[in-house]
Design goal:
Layout: H1 7-21, H2 33-36, E1 43-45, E2 48-50, H3 63-66, E3 69-71, E4 74-75, E5 87-93, E6 109-114, E7 122-130, E8 134-146, E9 150-162, E10 168-180, E11 186-201, E12 204-208, E13 229-245, E14 249-273, E15 278-286, E16 289-306, E17 309-326, E18 333-339, E19 358-375, E20 379-395, E21 402-406, E22 409-418, E23 423-434, E24 453-466, E25 470-486, E26 492-509, E27 515-529, H4 531-534, E28 548-556, E29 564-573, E30 576-577, E31 585-586, E32 589-602, E33 605-614, E34 623-626, E35 629-631, E36 637-645
Parallel strand pairs: 3-6, 12-14
Antiparallel strand pairs: 1-2, 1-5, 3-4, 5-6, 7-8, 7-36, 8-9, 9-10, 10-11, 11-13, 12-35, 13-14, 14-15, 14-16, 15-18, 16-17, 17-19, 19-20, 20-21, 20-22, 22-23, 23-24, 24-25, 25-26, 26-27, 27-28, 28-29, 29-32, 30-31, 32-33, 33-36, 34-35
Length: 648
């Protein structure tokens, strides 16, 4: 089924939103991730992102795969994509920014912020030419319907996206968030979102025949099959609620349904690639794959005041039920040898011989108690204990059902001490039970949901205010988890233990008038240990982990050019291991992005023009997917984006 949006629909939606807009305040035209960032550890605002970390990578691990996701501070188990149509942005909570969470988690936390209607009517329209000339159109509305009581935030985004490997795709993303405030102490937020992708040509996975990198090839030239398209429908819907009960009680809770449905899927594998660039194309087709979860949290808090001290007790229950269907891939189609990067179109097979799919069901309940203390001008501390009950049942074709279970106690503790009006030190330790994602495309058990794992994290550091407008955070961390990699039979599974120790730095604020700075660094020592290392089955460095990450985002607003600002983003990533034995390595690389922003008025409407040149130097490097497994990365690209907040 294809998703085609008639042009007349766009004009109808735009006209309807404009008619409802009324008087507007500046909204999307004021988006700026550099000025909004709290620190350098990672944040998104609208379509912009900044910082060292992201939802895919914090201290070398994925908080989304681990299940460490929140929506307005409330736990949910994310399976589907969370689109910008639903949320204003997200923040990575790690180090001192995680201290205020009563139940922290190893690998950090990704906290999304729902779009919300305020007390004024707001309409924003965004039109863009994104990377490689791909068009996008977005309508965003915040509509108060009953003053101070009820309103709706809604967003519709339509785009065609172009990719570095020459592939393209069409997307529809939409979100709706009604906001009901029966009184000033209660807020109820139902929400719904969908992300639908069609004609998404598969990115190639390049597998070398030994411990070496593939030869450099031309980007923006799709060399897979035009018919090997992926499709997906991702939905999130549910309701969140928060309430103050009297002066000392608070309630927060929610339930969320998250679905990732893939009606059609393929993998394009270019295997046995030689140093000279000869390769064998193999196409693997998948039947429908489906990952669906219902999850939620109920949390009750009681606060006590004692002079300068505040004590808060939290009691919480979290739960999730997950039902997955995956596997059943058709036998790989081998199209033989050819030069890597050279298109060789082949006719689509009339039919694929799919097998039975694997089904697994996860049920997990976690109950927790936490104590949070705050002493004015002295510090704050947090103690928590959780008990989790985890059950997973896997039914594979031809095998007896398998059951895995775990019932761990999960303690956590953190403290922050104020050494002066500008200096504080912090330390914390937490343990977790986390999911570990799914097996990658190049593995024999591709798409298989992996077992839950026990994890632990310790960190410590300082937070120092440098004057009124600058803030420094410096810390050390130690994260330990089971290490997943492909074994000698190409099965992706836990083989050893991995330990990521490192130093992370963040410097953010206004170093001078008209300047904004967000700079960060991670200096990490990731190491693998255990019997598999002693036996030589795996090397002592984990695949794909850089030991250095540096990033600086700088913005300047020249006083002689009113409305204009200019920005630069500079990042460097250290050498990475690309093979199980550690012999294959990808060199360090650096990226530079340059941009400008012009704020003006289009008639009476606030507007913003955003211009960006990403990867100015057209740097070439390889993504690392697994053992001697690679993917292309973005080259130089240009973005032009116009945002208008209408007055009416």
């Amino acid at each position: 089924m294809e998703t085609r949006i008639p042009k007349r629909w766009l004009w109808t939606v735009g006209a309807a939103l404009a008619a409802c807009a009324g008087a507007a305040q500046a909204q999307r035209a004021g988006d700026n991730a550099v000025t909004a960032a709290e620190d350098a550890f990672g944040a998104t605002l609208g379509n912009e992102s900044i910082g060292l970390y992201s939802a895919k990578q914090v201290r070398g691990f994925s908080p989304v795969d681990a299940g460490n996701v929140r929506m307005d501070g409330i736990y949910f188990d994310r399976q589907g994509t969370v689109p910008p149509a639903l949320v204003e942005g997200s923040t990575i909570r790690v180090g001192p920014s995680a201290l205020n969470y009563p139940f922290p988690a190893p690998t950090g936390i990704v906290d999304y912020r729902l779009k919300k209607a305020g007390d004024e009517r707001v309409l924003s329209v965004l039109a863009a030419l994104n990377a490689y000339g791909a068009p996008a159109l977005e309508f965003d509305a915040r509509l108060p319907l009953v003053e101070g009581r009820f309103g709706i935030a809604a967003n519709l985004a339509l785009s065609r996206e172009e990719y570095y490997d020459g592939a393209d795709a069409r997307y529809v993303r939409a979100g709706v968030v009604p906001r009901w405030r029966p009184n000033e102490h209660v807020e109820i937020l139902p929400f719904w979102s969908i992300s639908r992708g069609r004609d998404e040509e598969v990115a190639p996975t390049v597998l070398t025949a030994g411990p070496y990198r593939p030869p450099k090839i031309e980007r923006r030239r799709h060399f897979g099959q035009s018919w090997s398209d992926n499709e997906y429908d991702s939905r999130n819907f549910g309701v969140l609620a928060k309430a103050r009960i009297g002066a000392d009680w608070a309630f927060a809770g929610g339930v969320v349904r998250s679905i990732n449905d893939q009606p059609q899927g393929f993998a394009e594998l270019f295997a046995d690639t030689t140093r000279e660039g000869l390769t064998r194309e193999r196409v693997v087709a998948d039947p429908r794959q489906r990952y669906a979860s219902t999850s939620g949290e109920l949390r009750l808090s009681r606060s006590f005041r004692e002079g300068p001290r505040l004590h808060v007790l939290h009691a919480a229950v979290r739960g999730r039920g997950v039902d997955n269907e995956y596997g059943g891939s058709a036998p790989a189609i081998d199209y033989g040898w050819r030069p890597l990067g050279e298109p060789r179109p082949q006719p689509r097979p009339d039919a694929f011989e799919f097998g039975e799919r694997t089904q697994d069901h996860v049920e997990q309940w976690t109950a927790g108690l936490a104590y949070e203390g705050r002493w004015r001008e002295v510090g704050e501390w947090n103690l928590g204990i959780q008990r989790s009950r985890y059950r997973k049942r896997i039914v594979q074709p031809g095998l007896a059902p398998a059951l895995s279970r775990d019932d761990p106690w999960l303690p956590s503790a953190s403290v922050s001490l104020q050494l002066g009006p500008r200096l504080a030190v912090y330390a914390g330790h937490t343990r977790g039970l986390e999911e570990s994602g799914i097996a990658p495309d190049d593995a024999a058990n591709r798409n298989q949901a992996l077992p839950a794992i026990r994890t632990r994290q310790s960190d410590a550091g300082l937070r120092w205010k440098l004057g009124d407008d600058m803030k420094l955070v410096a810390g050390v961390f130690d994260v330990r988890k089971p290490y997943f990699a492909t074994d000698e039979n190409n099965v992706f599974a836990p083989l050893a233990e991995v330990r990521h120790r490192g130093i992370e730095l963040s410097l953010s604020g206004k170093p001078a008038d008209n300047w904004n700075l967000v700079a960060g660094a991670v200096l990490m020592r990731p190491r693998v240990s255990g019997e598999a290392v002693r036996l030589g089955r795996v090397g002592d460095r984990p695949i794909g982990q850089a030991e250095q990450m540096l990033r600086t985002d700088l913005e300047y607003r020249p006083p002689w050019l009113p409305g204009w600002s200019f920005d630069a983003s500079m990042s460097r990533y250290g050498e990475r291991v690309a093979s199980r034995d550690g012999r294959n390595r990808v060199p360090a690389y650096a990226l530079v992005d340059l941009g400008a922003r012009y704020r003006f008025r289009l008639g009476e409407a606030p507007a913003s023009l955003r211009l960006l040149v990403a990867n100015v130097g057209d740097t070439f490097t390889w993504n690392i997917y697994g053992n001697n497994s690679f993917g292309l990365t973005d080259g130089r690209r240009y973005v032009a984006q116009l945002t208008v907040d209408f007055d009416g």
